[in-house]
């Protein structure tokens, strides 16, 4: 299939593409360049795993409270339900921004490979996407910080 495509393309271009992609040192350089974003992607995944674990616990607690009929719920349970819902929203927002950061950094890795084999200079695009990744990750971590602070403070209602 690829050979059919190359046969239809102007020969100098086809040979140029093959020449660019056949360079082992060039491929090694691109792999080295993509290591930092790849490690960042692994770190984002680890953070998302922690956030998801917390969100699963929150959702389980909400379900246990909601299993109690409405008229049988105590004031403490009602107060805790609101607190848990706020924590769930913060966790969901943290996951959303972290996922967006993971998608963008994956795009950066792909573009790093593509940039080594095309003539167009896309370094500015890659740098912009890297900055966007950092911004999305920071916002996700801020929402995770908000959720952990809410958990540390508790429901702010005296137990009794």
Structure commentary:
- The protein is an all-alpha fold and 160 residues long.
- The protein has five helices and no strands.
- It has helices at residues 2-8, 11-21, 24-67, 75-115, 123-153.
- α4 (75-115) packs antiparallel against α5 (123-153).
- The longest helix has 44 residues, at 24-67.
Which terms would index this structure?
single chain; 160 residues; mainly alpha
User: Mean pLDDT, nearest integer?
Assistant: 86
Quote the beta fraction.
under 5%
The H-and-E topology, N to C, reads as HHHHH
How would the global form be characterised? rod-shaped
Count of individual helical segments: 5
Low-confidence stretches: none
Content-based structural category: mainly alpha
Strand elements, count? 0
Rg on CA atoms, Å: 24 Å
In short:
The protein is mostly helical.
Describe the protein's topology.
Blueprint: H1 2-8, H2 11-21, H3 24-67, H4 75-115, H5 123-153
